[in-house]
Amino acid sequence: MRVANLDGRAVLLGDIRVLDIASASAGRFSADPQSVYASWSELCEWGEGIDVDRHPRSVDVDRATLAPPVPRPGQILAVGLNYAEHAAESGLELPQHPLVFTKFASSLTGPDAVVQLSGARVDWEAELVVVIGTGGRDIPAGEAWNRIAGLTIGQDISDRDVQWWGASAQFSLGKSFEGYAPTGPAVVSVAEIEAGHDRDDLRVSCRSIDSSGQERVLQDGRTRDMIFTVPAIVEQLSAIVELQPGDLVFTGTPAGVGQGRTPEEFLTPGLTLVTEIDGLGSIRQEFA
């Protein structure tokens, strides 16, 4: 099951069509895409297995009209330096505990978006994003996947100049300009991911496309190489923070960011960035 956000309404996403959840369920579930996570188990019982593209009430969809699948999360938590090779390219030691910051919700945008660059040193970071379902406190790692609604794709776009303002890092500000948290195209249920992939070993990649159409692979990693696995992240976060339905957790980026290159490279106007994760699809940003 894939849940997306079309014009502020929760929809099931097929390959080429969408199905309005509230209408198709005769009002059993809310049209509000943020509200579905509070009743995720019931939604899965209803929606898993529906063939959206063949459903008589489904309609065609233009991907460019999709909004963030989780539009108003109560919390966005992000983990830094969660891949050893990324820590090495950053010149930093491996963390002993998850390094956590936030991206403010006003930075969210949809899966296919035009993003205005905030400066000359804006970087890319392809990430697997966890969407919390049941939530709670003190969730043991062995229970974590049962508390997760699904997964989606994110880019943790980062203004490196703002990120490193002053004597103390400003991660949250540097990563929260308008459009700097593209997510989507949908939240894919754990059951659907498991039907075709190993949920603990997903390929995470991104590539750039310049104005001439030339493509370059920028990042190509696997979630099995995370320092802190998805269950470990949920366990350690929930020991401190109460996780709530619809919260987003950015889980870190593999090696290949622009700041870690010699010489450094950053996003430029006219460049397109395509990010893909096994079983989740792709998102696409054009930079202006």
Automatic annotation (TrEMBL):
Keyword DNA repair: no
Keyword line: Metal-binding
Top-level taxon: Bacteria
InterPro entries with a match to the protein in the record: FAH (IPR051121), Fumarylacetoacetase-like_C (IPR011234), Fumarylacetoacetase_C_sf (IPR036663)
Organism of derivation: Herbiconiux ginsengi
Record carries keyword Nucleotide-binding: no
Gene Ontology molecular-function annotations: catalytic activity; metal ion binding
Fumarylacetoacetase-like C-terminal domain location: 76-286
Protein family membership: Belongs to the FAH family.
Protein name: 2-keto-4-pentenoate hydratase/2-oxohepta-3-ene-1,7-dioic acid hydratase (Catechol pathway)
Biological process according to GO: small molecule metabolic process
